Every structure is written in structure tokens, then in C-alpha cells.
Amino acid sequence: MNLSFNDLNLIEPILLALKTEGYTSPTPIQAQTIPLALQRKDILGCAQTGTGKTAAFAIPIIQLLSQNKNVSPGKREIKSLILTPTRELAIQIEESFKNYGKNTNLKCKVIFGGVSQHAQVESLRQGIDILIATPGRLLDLMNQKHVNLSHIQFFVLDEADRMLDMGFVHDVKRIITKLPKQRQSLFFSATMPPVIVELADTILVNPSKVEVTPVSSTANTINQEVYFVDKENKRNLLIDILKDKSIERVLVFARTKHGADKISKDLVKSGIGSQAIHGNKSQNARQHALNNFKSKLTRVLVATDIAARGIDIDELTHVINYELPNIPESYVHRIGRTGRAGASGIAISFCDAEEKEYLRDIQKLIGKNVPVNSKHDYPLMNHTVVKTPQRGQRPPRNTSAKPSTERNAGDRNFGAKSNTAKSGADRNTSFSGEKRNSAAKEGFSKPKSYGNNSPAKKWFGDKRNRTSV
Fold first, then answer.
1. How many structural domains is the chain composed of?
2. Cβ(359)–Cβ(329) under 8 Å?
3. Residue in 105, 33, 10, 99 with CA at minimum distance from that of residue 66
4. Are 414 and 430 in contact (CB under 8 A)?
5. Which domain holds residue 156?
6. Contact 376, 233 (CB under 8 A)
7. Is 119 in contact with 433 (CB distance < 8 Å)?
8. Would you tell me how many other CB atoms lie within 10 Å of the CB of residue 399?
9. Strands of 80-83's sheet in order across
10. 176 in the same domain as 33
């Protein structure tokens, strides 16, 4: 039986907004989450990007706030906080709240680092109902007494595992200590490593579990293929592929910021419209590049993994991994930018000799071989096809591989040669003069033992090495 939004007991203003947006049927996570959230239950959601998580938490929050009769006159106080790791995802969430709540009188605002705080502070002074924020800027404004979280009724932690990857877990814990004990909390993560399970246990009270689309799966609508090519020939191969004029837009992934810039410049020199987006770009530059790509003014957007989660681009047909990611789960998130909402998509990956182990790990994660396309002019010399091992326990990854330099895709700007935050207008750390610990120290420390009554332990087990669900 196919559900419609009319079956979810939603109020008329929201149904009208959804109809305007062209939505008729909820996705699985929406169909499961919305009724539970409307019953004011805490939610533990395990779902990857592209499954419709934003609407799953935005719609019930809008409805419950709209029906709240206990609103005191005077300045609006922040009643809902949505915490998310990156600027782009924060902006997208704000757009969703505005679209779904357009027929209500609720006010929402997004705050993030990398830009002047003046306009953000002014909006906070005027009063808002819903705040979408990245951790660093939120803590900064809290310390300046511009943000009061004592009236929070609804708290959402989105992309929790991404928070861990980016070293924001300590910031998140600080923010949580400022929230009222009596609140409804919704927690979403694509994977459930032990540190995330432990964090969920500190946030949620008797939560309901929602689990859809494990991170190891790729959509059947995406046609995947791999080209074996020498590193020095990747540029020529990419240009050859883009000679096909039927490819109107393509998202190209690089492993580093410098690499993204170089690829984009090479394409422009070849007469192909291209822009790069990564953590060293200013917020205005990033948003400008993304808007140009969405509106088809730019044909190619070259990105680091900052764009792998939470960026929803309609009718994106092609994703190209110019460099394979050294974390297998990132491959799933990258190619998930295409083949969305039931549409078909094409994911092409370039693999040089040094990346074969990355490909092997990816194929083991997704449980199948990526078909090889050998019909090109730049074949990798003396290569053997990488076969997929049988699904089971993954072998240890190559710890000698250099990790991605895109440490921060969120609201802290880190220089290419330094892991300490910049000072001045672009500095988005929470406390002046404070040096942050590395993500390894903050997020990957040995977790505490779980209590016997831990809901997350019951659902996801006590497997210390588990990285995905």
C-alpha cells in the first residue's frame, strides 16, 4: 500500500505547501519518522543522505510548533534547534523549512561561519522560532550572549557521523549541556560507529528507531563503471568524456582542495565551463558556484567531499570520481548525488595504479564489482582487474594511505598548511585563543562502556569495530 502525505495526519497549511512543491508520497524514512515525531517521541534514525531526512524532521517540527498554544506574547524565543556539520547543508535545511512552512507564521534563520555575523545577530535579536546552525558559529554566538537555548522544545542532530569526521563532537556536547532537559530530540546518522552510539545514548530518551537504506548500498538506478587510467592521463580522459555534448552537467570529485582547483582550471583552459567548490573558498564563492551549477550556467562543478552529503541537485545525470576516495563510504555518498528520487544516473570512476586498493575496499563495501569500461584511449599499462572479495569482514585498510586534506568542510576555515583556526573575521572557533584538539583526540577516543539499558546498544550491538549499519 502506497502512503500519501494525506495519510500522515498533517495540517492543511503543510499539505498545501507540499502540494505546491510537487510532493505526493513520502519516502520510507518520512513515512516512518513523521508519525512518531508527531507523537513527540525521540527518534534514532539511521539513514544516508538522499533519503529525505530533512522533510522527515522538518514537517513534524513545523506542525507541532504551529499547534503550540502556549506561546507567550513578546519577542519570539528559539524553540527548535537543528545542528548540522556544513554550511551548504545548513542552507539547504533552511530552504526546506521555509518551503514546508510557507503557509505558517513561523520564522527560521540559518547561522554559519565564514561570513560576517552582523546580519545573523540582527535576525536573532528580532526573534525566531527555528534556528539551523553549524557548531562553531553557534558556540561563538552563544559565548557572546546572542543565542539563548533555554526555550528549546525540539533538537535535531543531523549527519552525526559527519560531525565526528570533522572533529565537531566536542562542540556538540558543549551545546547539548545548554539545552533544556525536557525536550524532544531527533538524531540522524548514516553510520553508527561506537562513538556515535555513545553520543546518541546521551541525547535520546527511550527513542524510537528508524532505519532505512544502509550506507553500504548504492541505488539500482545508478549505472556505475570504472576506467583504469594512469594518473597523468586522467585530465585528458576527463576532457574526452566531456566532449559528449549530451552530458549537460557533471559533478567531478577530487580528493584535495588543491586538486579540485587544478582540475577546474584545466577544464576552463580546454573551453569547458567549470568552477570548484571546497572548504578554502569563501561562503559567497561556494554559494555562487553551486547556484551557477544548479541553474546550468556552469557545466562542471569540481568538488571535494564537502559536496558529498546534503547537496540536492535536481536532474544531475553524471558523477565522476576523478580520484577515488580513500574511505569506501564516501564513494556511496558521492555517487548518491545522481540517481535521486527514482531517476537514472551514471557514476564514472577513474582508477590509477595507486588507487586499486581503494577500489577493492569500495567493491567489498557495496558487495559487487564495478564494471570496467576499457573503451578509451588512455588504458592503464600492465594492470589486472580488481575483483571483489566475498561479502564479509572487511580487511584492514591501508593505513599508510594519505588521508584527505579536506578536514573541514563546515564552518571552520583551516589553511592548507595548518590545522589551527584562522584568526580575524574568518575565524570560527568557539572560544578566543583556544586551540582545538584534533579529531583523532576528540572523536576517536576509546568510548565508554555502554549501559545495559542503552537503546543504541540493543539495536546496533556492542561491536566496537563496526563502521556501518
1. 2
2. no
3. 105
4. no
5. 5-211
6. no
7. no
8. 6
9. 108-111, 130-133, 80-83, 154-157, 184-189, 43-46, 208-211
10. yes
Phi, psi of 334 (to 5 degrees): -60, -55
Q: Are residues 259 and 342 in the same domain?
A: yes
38 CB neighbour count, 10 Å cutoff: 17
Grid cell 560507529 in the structure block, residue: 193
Q: Report how far residue 395's alpha carbon sits from residue 403's, in angstroms, rounded to the nearest whole number.
A: 18
Spatial separation of the C-alpha atoms in residues 66 and 17, rounded to whole Å: 14
Calpha distance 381→438 (Å, rounded): 40
Candidates 58, 212, 189, 217; CA nearest to 456 is: 189
- Any bridge partners for residue 87, and if so which? none
State whether 136 and 275 are in the same domain: no
Q: Are residues 166 and 262 in the same domain?
A: no
pLDDT digits (tens, 9 = 90+) for 196-231: 889 999 999 999 999 886 666 677 889 999 999 999
Q: How many helices (H) and strands (E) does the chain have?
A: 16, 13
Do both 250 and 327 map to the same domain?
Answer: yes
Q: What one-character-per-residue DSSP string does 71-138 give?
A: PPSSS----EEEE-S-HHHHHHHHHHHHHHTTTS---EEEE-SSS-SHHHHHHHHH--SEEEE-HHHH
Q: Could you give the dihedral angle defined by the CA atoms of residues 170, 172, 177 and 181, in that order, rounded to the nearest 10 degrees?
A: -140
- Owner of C-alpha cell 569482514: 393
Show the cell assigned to 238.
576527463
257 is a domain residue: yes
Residue 82's DSSP bridge partners are 132, 156
C-alpha grid cell, residue 344: 537514472
Can you state the percent helix, strand and coil of the chain, rounding each to 5? 35, 15, 50
Are residues 193 and 94 part of one domain? yes
Domain identity same for 102 and 132: yes
Distance CA 264, CA 211 (A): 38
Q: Measured between alpha carbons, how far is residue 152 from residues 58, 90, 122, 184, 423 in Å?
A: 15, 18, 20, 9, 31
* CA distance linking residue 429 with residue 409, whole number of Å: 14
**What pLDDT, in 10s, does the model give residues 273-331?**
999 998 788 778 888 998 899 899 999 999 988 666 656 777 889 999 999 998 887 89
pLDDT of 267: 97
Q: Report d(CA 53, CA 173) in Å as an integer.
A: 22
Q: Kindly state the DSSP code that residue 465 receives in the 8-state scheme.
A: T
